[in-house]
Amino acid sequence: MTRSANRLGMAVLTAGVVAAAAACGRPAPPAATGAAPAVVTVGPENVVTVSRQQIRVGPLLSGELRPAREATVRAEVGGSVLEVNADEGQAVARGGVIGRIEALAIRDGVLSAQSGVRSAEQGLEVARRESERVASLVRGGALAERDLELARSAATVAEAQLADARARLASAQKLLDATTIRASITGVISHRAVNAGDVIAPGGELVTIIDPSSMRLEAAVPSEALQALTVGAPVEFSVRGYPDQTFTGRIERLSPVADRVTRQVPIFVAIPNAGGRLVAGLFAEGRVISETREALAVPMSAVNLSGQTAWVMRLRGGVAERVELQLGARDDRTERVEVRAGLAEGDQLLVGAAQAVTPGTPVKVAEPRGAAVR
Q1: Which of 154, 166, 299, 300 measures 20 to 30 Å from 74, CA to CA?
Q2: Mutual orientation of helices 145-178 and 104-139 as an angle, nearest 10°?
Q3: How far apart are CA 8 and CA 48, in angstroms?
Q4: Do residues 116 and 169 touch, judged by C-beta distance below 8 A?
Q5: What pLDDT was estimated at residue 11?
């Protein structure tokens, strides 16, 4: 077949297509002027849906859990530690015996003081009888009034000596009682500083007891957030060691002095620690809740703030389009932001690398891995 015949055949074929299209009532397809935009496939992790969510606004804080009630039991007398009946983590009741200190010398002092009391009691008894005898003789005229005054003075001195002996006995008995170590509050032993056989000096640390039910959060917030801090304001926080759990409390006190280095303001948050779940010493992060509202919200990762106006890449009808937004409150803790205008509930937005798609590009969302094949 010659080249002229080929051209004729193509002309006839084109005429046939046009005639067929006209017969079907449809316009002929336009001549191709360029390639159509390629469809971009993105994973489901690159798409988020706009929804109504709870937005909470307030200054962020970080700090440490500490017991509100804590007591360090110290030795009132020195000596060798005979026994310690409390281990770390053991619950104790107020007044319960948790240890003993050797008390031989103190016990001897108590015995000596008891002897002194008995001697003073006998001296007082003799002085009183002598006073009564002298008084009888004075009434009979056998002795002068001056002798009665001397006898009564001797009885008074004997009474003072008895009082002093009893005071010495009480002091010695108190020292003896102090050799028995007792819990000062009801709680749990958090630290034990001595063991049996150790020699302790007066004032030396023995054990530390905390009350787990009195836990509080000692935290700090930026000084710029002082206006949002009020006593009684709710606080929401999470604790390392308790994943996916949120705890709440209320501001109990505010420090009147900011930290000289960080310029942050210390706050103290009361925490209801029912069941003793929270453990002292753990690190906590959270925020003071100054405002809560229900609003349309999107992740901050979906919003582009590089220009003068915030915008997102919305997926509508399978095509990406750029939409400018009017934003509202920002939830820094959950990294979400309120959308006041520009989007509707149910809109799908591109996030991550998918935001680089050119507006007008067809986009297809891939099926999640493991999805059932239809």
Answers
A1: 166
A2: 160
A3: 56
A4: yes
A5: 36
pTM above threshold 0.90: no
Can you read off the two tokens belonging to residue 372?
């059932």
Which CATH number fits the domain that encloses residue 129?
Answer: 1.10.287.470
Please, are residues 247 and 238 in contact by the beta-carbon 8 Å criterion?
yes
| Residue pLDDT, tens place only, 83-121 | 998 899 899 999 999 999 998 888 999 999 999 999 999
- Rounded Cα distance, 38 and 32, in Å: 16
Residue 215's nearest CA partner among 269, 160, 136 is: 269
The Cα 59–Cα 111 span in angstroms is: 65
The mean per-residue pLDDT over the stretch 273-301 comes to: 84
Which amino acid appears at position 39 of this protein? V
The conformational region for residue 226 under phi > 0 = left, psi -120 to 50 = alpha, else beta, is alpha
Sheet containing 291-299: order of strands = 51-57, 291-299, 336-341, 326-331
Specify the CATH number for the domain of residue 314. Answer: 2.40.420.20
Q: Which residues pair with 63 in a beta bridge?
A: 219, 284
Closest C-alpha among 32, 173, 196 to residue 107: 173
The residue type of 58 is G
3-state secondary structure at position 176: helix
Residue 11 within any structural domain of the chain:
no
Which residues neighbour 66 within 8 Å (Cβ) at sequence distance 6 or greater?
A: 215, 216, 217, 218, 280, 281
The whole-angstrom separation of Cα 21 and Cα 35 is 23
pLDDT single digits (tens) 51-90: 998 888 888 888 999 998 999 999 999 999 999 988 998 9
Structural domain count, the chain: 4
Distance, in Å, from the CA atom of 218 to the CA atom of 333, rounded to the nearest integer, reads 19
Between residues 225 and 36, the one the model is more confident about: 225
Start-to-end CA span in the chain (Å): 50
d(CA 59, CA 290): 8
Instruction: Establish if 241 belongs to a structural domain.
Output: yes
Are 189 and 209 contacting, i.e. CB atoms less than 8 angstroms apart?
A: yes
